[in-house]
Design the sequence.
């Protein structure tokens, strides 16, 4: 299976803090509205069948569901999924969570989803290209897919690891491994080889003075891409 057990253990240990907006997951809470709004510039989620791959505690999946989509979130951290399910019950969100890999679900449900999202997950698996291929298989022809990850660049090492983990302490030390970061050219190649057409790219930046995240065209650190099958 395309999984790094140490990565699963890392996020499982923090699962109970997933919905605390002042916890280690504060950055995810901060960027979630930006990601969701960017997705909506490409597609109206209302009534769509959406899959969120690597959903963790459900921050993005739940907001997609609340946008009117028939939403499923999958992850391999059972603890994170339990937290996601409990939070959905608390707020009355109607969505489904499953403990299954993208590759296994692709064999089970090919071409079943209008939209597939895979955010901040590719840098945590041994074979990110395999996940991209599985996401492509899961998506209906004409459907839209969204991926986000971290660029493997000197600026990214400085900001995402040294800055975020050691200086600003926005994330726990060891959250990211620089060698697992993915250059935009590499991710685009993964999608192209999976038969996907590039629609757009966007960078995500953090201002440590204002403590505000924003969307821009700087792909040096965090970035997202939209593609169509």
Sequence:
């Amino acid at each position: 299976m395309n999984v790094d057990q140490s990565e699963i253990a890392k996020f499982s240990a923090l699962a109970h803090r997933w919905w605390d907006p002042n916890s280690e997951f504060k950055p995810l809470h901060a960027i979630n509205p930006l990601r969701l709004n960017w997705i909506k510039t490409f597609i109206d989620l209302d009534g769509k069948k959406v899959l969120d791959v690597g959903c963790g505690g459900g921050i993005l999946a739940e907001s997609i569901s609340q946008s009117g989509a028939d939403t499923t979130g999958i992850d391999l951290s059972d603890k994170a999924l339990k937290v996601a399910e409990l939070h959905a019950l608390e707020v009355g969100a109607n969505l489904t969570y499953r403990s299954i890999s993208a590759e296994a679900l692709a064999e089970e449900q090919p071409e079943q989803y209008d939209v597939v999202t895979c955010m901040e997950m590719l840098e945590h698996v041994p074979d990110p290209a395999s996940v991209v291929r599985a996401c492509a298989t899961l998506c209906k022809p004409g459907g839209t897919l969204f991926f986000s990850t971290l660029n493997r660049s000197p600026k990214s090492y400085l900001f995402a690891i040294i800055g975020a983990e050691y200086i600003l302490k926005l994330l726990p030390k060891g959250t990211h491994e620089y060698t697992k970061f993915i250059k935009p050219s590499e991710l685009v190649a993964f999608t192209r080889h999976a038969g996907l057409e590039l629609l757009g790219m966007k960078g995500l930046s953090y201002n440590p003075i204002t403590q505000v995240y924003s969307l821009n065209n700087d792909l040096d650190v965090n970035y997202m891409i939209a593609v169509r099958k």
Notes: The chain has one domain: 5-228. The mean pLDDT is 94. Residues 15 and 140 are 32 Å apart (CA to CA).
